[in-house]
């Protein structure tokens, strides 16, 4: 077989793999639950650089027990738990039992209720010419995600919540 033919076969296999993954992601986006989650950005220590935002999802947690250590502070290891993600009223909630999308979360107290910080952050890649606006008083950054059958939530878009309403950002 000639080198050109071998190269074309390898290119066809790679293209089929990329199209298969893309098709799977589009199918999940159209058939799986979608929900919004409050997020907090941070700068990761990653070797890749470019225009992307790393967001840590912070979601309500139900059915978990918050554990404290002997000094009365939070016990890190006891409050790191496996949680399943569910969609309720267009928002994500962490629960101890379920099926589908799941991951490790860190429980935190939020007043009388519990909040779960999803351990695996979501990366949102944005165009080089996108203008990401700064938050103003009373605004919060939220991210809409797909909840796949397995694995962590996958980001779709970002939005700003103000006065109870989420307005998607135009990052094109």
Explained architecture:
This protein has about 170 residues and is an alpha+beta fold. The chain folds into two domains: about 1-30; about 35-170, no CATH class. Helix content is about 15%, strand content about 40%. It has one helix and ten strands; from the N terminus they run H-E-E-E-E-E-E-E-E-E-E. Strands 1, 2, 3, 4, 5, 6, 7, 8, 9 and 10 form a ten-stranded antiparallel beta sheet that branches. The longest helix has 29 residues, at about 5-30. It starts with a helix and ends with a strand.
Q: List the uncertain runs.
A: none
Structural class: alpha+beta
Can you tell me the overall shape?
globular
β content, as a range?
35-45%
Q: On the 0-100 scale, what is the average pLDDT?
A: 86
Number of alpha- plus pi-helical segments = 1
Determine the fraction of residues in helical runs and give it as a percent range. Answer: 10-25%
Q: How many domains, in number, for the residues?
A: 2
Distance between the termini: 45 Å
Rounded to an integer, what's the Rg over CA atoms?
Answer: 20 Å
Largest sheet: 10 strands, antiparallel
Instruction: Tell me the total number of β-strands.
Output: 10
The ordered string of helix (H) and strand (E) elements is HEEEEEEEEEE
